Automatic annotation (TrEMBL):
It comes from the Eukaryota. GO terms for molecular function: zinc ion binding. Residues 7-75 form the ZAD domain. GO terms for cellular component: nucleus. This is ZAD domain-containing protein. InterPro entries: Znf_AD. It comes from Rhamnusium bicolor.
Amino acid sequence: MESCIKICRLCFNKCDINFEAIEEITINILDVLLIKINVVVSEEPVMCKNCAEIIQNSFEFKSTCLYTHNYIVPFVNEKENSKLDLREIYLCKNGHEDMEVSEADTVCGFCMNLLKSCPFLSLDNKDEDVTLVEMMINKCFPELLSLARIL
């Protein structure tokens, strides 16, 4: 009996052995990422390991950003016309209101951690000519850029 060829529902490449079944949780994750796929065209919809990894990284990134957004909103409403200082929010979030964060410390707007401990950035490899924005795009958005190539 010949086995059925598996095709990734995201990139449409053949999946010989490296694939993952698209189950209800995966469909929910794709909905959060605003990716709509038709899974009923196949009895057993699958995605390749590469797409599964990109989807997982994208979901983690978006979840972190949504959590941060929801955490920051009350502070934005509280401040109204004054400038929002992410260092103050960082201290509140971590329960260290009495601790001080130096002017040199920068808080990541994606995850609300100090940049030196941000899971999305690595300052160890920072070149002198690379700006913070470029670092964030290179580190945070490759998943999204990879995702865009899939679609």
